[in-house]
Design brief:
It contains three helices and ten strands, in the order βββββββαβββαα. With 182 residues, it is α+β, with helices and mostly antiparallel strands.
């Protein structure tokens, strides 16, 4: 096992309400020194919720994404607030974005997006035993919900609005989880 490099210096290059960009000077075991930049996201990470309607039907949302300047098909997600558990955040986001809550929430995996420069972790939660429960969220417009059938897995992957890596990875994780649950 490699020993982690020593952090010699950390300085803030830029800061916004969403991110801080830092320069980190590292010293490795072989005395090589390098400067890296990393993005620090404030808070406690995020949750991505996969709402399971039945053994093969999942609920997704269509939401405007400013990064691609387009509407994307993805799973509900959001930040974990202070003093909120992963499960509480998942149920809150589920209610805000779909109008449903879940009696059963299962944490199946945690993933990073770009660990080479971003410290953000997303926790993947399966939401089962759904019931109607709406909570007002912070979205600027109502979100559209859409169901997908896991029996048509290859067809789901061909949907042009489905490009977000976390949602695609979650489809695979949930498909495997549900197959093992049968």
């Amino acid at each position: 096992m490699h020993k982690k490099p020593d952090i010699l210096k950390v300085s803030t290059l830029s800061k916004s309400k969403l991110f801080t960009i830092e320069q980190v000077t590292l010293s490795f075991q072989n005395n090589e020194q390098r400067d890296y930049e990393r993005i620090i996201a404030p808070g406690n990470g995020a949750v991505l919720i996969v709402p399971v309607v039945d053994s093969s039907t999942l609920l997704m949302i269509k939401e405007y994404c400013v990064g691609t300047h387009d509407y994307q098909l993805l799973f509900p997600k959001g930040r974990i607030d202070n003093n909120e558990s992963i499960e509480q955040a998942a149920n809150r986001e589920l209610m805000e974005e779909t109008g449903y809550a879940a009696h059963r929430l299962t944490h199946i995996h945690s993933m990073s997006i770009a660990p080479g420069y971003l410290d953000f972790i997303t926790h993947i939660i399966i939401a089962e035993e759904l019931y109607e429960q709406n909570l007002e969220g912070d979205e600027p417009e109502p979100l559209q919900t859409q169901t997908v059938d896991l029996n048509d897995f290859d067809k789901i992957l061909q949907i042009s609005e489905l490009t977000e890596a976390r949602s695609i990875a979650s489809l695979y994780l949930v498909r495997d989880y549900l197959l093992k649950s049968k």
